[in-house]
TrEMBL record:
Keywords of this entry: Oxidoreductase
EC category: oxidoreductase
Origin superkingdom: Bacteria
This protein's name: FMN reductase (NADH) NtaB
One Pfam family linked to the record: Flavin_Reduct
Organism expressing this protein natively: Candidatus Arcanibacter lacustris
Protein's gene: ntaB
Length: 161
């Protein structure tokens, strides 16, 4: 059976996912991309993974970097998800950040939590690359609710089952 990519996207859109901003410093400039492909990988050693599309204009900054920061967005930060998924200049303007103590990568203030990580390995994943990384610092920042991406829209969790 041949897989129609539009239909494939529609099926995958049924996966509710958290939204993160992955950041790095490359040649003294800061860069960031919206991702939903972030997941925990290993507890011992502490590791995470994420996937980046090879065709993204920002891909090269992450392909050549050793350290990344991850900010887990809260439900009021959908505008940041949109901001970091578009390719426009000055997209860091008016984004409230702090620099990670270990990595110096930007972390978005008011996000739910952050991680600072050192890239360990990269694996081919079709039109994406799978990055695995060791966590060198992390923390919870507040008790807000998470930003959820589901069926191409942003959602907030309002009740507990
Ligand atoms: C909610 C959401 C989740 C996304 N998740 C990923 C992801 O996991 N990996 C990825 O490479 N791009 C992801 N993207 C797309 C990127 O943020 C961005 O749009 C893309 O890299 C832009 O490519 P360009 O620089 O060529 O314009 C996501 C976008 C949104 C809005």
């Amino acid at each position: 059976m041949s897989i129609n990519s539009l239909e494939f996207r529609k099926t995958l859109a049924n996966l509710a996912s958290s939204v993160c901003i992955i950041s790095t410093v490359f040649e003294e400039e800061i860069h960031g991309i919206t991702i939903s492909s972030f997941t925990s990988l290993s507890l011992d050693p502490p590791m995470i993974l994420f996937c980046l599309g090879k065709h993204s204009k920002k891909y090269q900054y992450f392909q050549d970097t050793k350290l990344v920061g991850v900010s887990i967005l809260n439900s009021s930060q959908d505008y940041l998800s949109n901001n970091f998924s578009r390719n426009h200049e000055n997209y860091w303007d008016s984004v409230d950040i702090m620099l990670g103590e270990q990595s110096k990568c930007p972390i978005i203030k008011d996000s739910l939590g952050f991680l600072e990580c050192g890239i360990e390995a990269k694996y081919d994943g079709g039109d994406h690359t799978i990055f695995t990384a060791k966590v060198i610092n992390h923390g919870k920042l507040n008790d807000f609710s998470p930003l959820i991406h589901f069926r191409s829209e942003y959602w907030a969790i309002n009740s507990k089952e």
